[in-house]
Amino acid sequence: MRSWQANVLIIWGSVLFGLGFVLTRFGLEGAPPAKFVLLRFALAFVVAVAVFNRRLLGIPWATVRDGLLLGALLGLGTLLQAYAIRFTSISRAAFISILTVLFIPILGFAIFREKPGFFKVAGMVLAANGLYFLLDPNFMGMEAGDVFAFCSVPVFSLYFIMAHRFADRYQGPYPTSRLLALQFLGAMPVALVAALFLEWGILPPLDPALGMAIKPGLRPILGLVFCSVLVSLCLALILAACQRHTTGFAAALCFQVEPVVATLGAAIILGEPVGIKTCIGGFLIIAGLAGGELFQGEGEAFEAGAEKAARGSLITAGPMADPDGHGPVPGPKARPGGAHT
């Protein structure tokens, strides 16, 4: 697979992810968030077992441990995102969730001491200004769903960091299939606990509508199937197939499509209004994300190229002046025909 093909697939996956926000709203018409997420991952797990079949036999304990850990993070992030979509507009939830791309280097520095570059820090500042417009000045327009969306950002960031660290251990169809199916299995207990405490009466619900029973219908079933099969399963397979054929900053740029698709989908399909502050805030967030990734990637490529050129000059150069002033430094010995030793 060529790099441009991998990027096209990632863009297609971003479109699915963006439409997933709209279809999640469909699903929430028939079930409260935790119950919907529980059904979503249960269906995804059943489909994964049916598709992968014998690949899931004889799974090593280390794979079970890693898969369930990733699944717990995936389940918690998806649950928070579902509550965000329930209690705020889709456009705001989508633009806040894409901040995961910028939060990853922050969390990477906090946990693994991996320092973010200058351009990524500048992108964070620009994205923060975008949030100022998105949430209205002085944050007076912040809604309960915005808080859930913010809480999902560090959870998804940790999920992507851990998934990246596990990537080298699970290459090939069998390890990837096993890890993916186990993630769906590990996500279900998180949604089940949330449903028991927040939606089935152990704790007072955040909203009376959260206590509603599951109501099957065409739109809820469509939302459930779309999010389970196309978003959870197909998007994960796309990312697993493409991650070795593209760069991290190219993939991050491709994912900027997601909030745009979610916003357009909400406006066209659901008739959700999109205000001027949402447009300005969303533009600044994407500019900060895309600019930080693009310029950081170009800067790293320039430094790598300069270092390579410097190494090449040391190999091909003739006698050089000694920096201490002791005369020329002998260059590499030349073989007949101009080759160096």
SSE layout:
Layout: H1 3-28, H2 33-52, H3 61-87, H4 90-97, H5 100-112, H6 118-134, H7 144-166, H8 173-199, H9 218-242, H10 248-254, H11 257-269, H12 276-316, E1 320-321, E2 328-329
Antiparallel strand pairs: 1-2
Helix pairs in contact: 1-9, 1-11, 2-3, 2-8, 2-9, 3-7, 3-8, 4-7, 4-11, 5-7, 6-12, 10-12
Describe, in short, the structure shown.
This protein is mainly alpha-helical and 341 residues long.
Q: What do you see in this structure?
A:
- By secondary structure, the protein is an all-alpha fold.
- The chain has one domain (3-117, 142-270).
- Helix content is 72%, strand content 1%.
- Helix 3 crosses helix 8 and helix 4 (90-97) runs parallel beside helix 7 (144-166).
- The longest helix has 41 residues, at 276-316.
- It is globular and about 50 Å long.
- Global Rg: 24 Å
| Silhouette | globular
Residues in helices, as a percent range = over 70%
- Determine the mean pLDDT: 76
Q: What is the number of strand segments?
A: 2
Question: Within the largest sheet, what's the order of strands?
Answer: 1-2
Tally of separate helices: 12
Low-confidence stretches: 298-341
The major beta sheet can be summarized as: 2 strands, antiparallel
| Gap from first CA to last CA | 37 Å
H and E string: HHHHHHHHHHHHEE
Please indicate the percent range of residues in DSSP E strands (runs of 2 or more).
under 5%
Helix/strand/pairing category: mainly alpha
Number of domains: 1
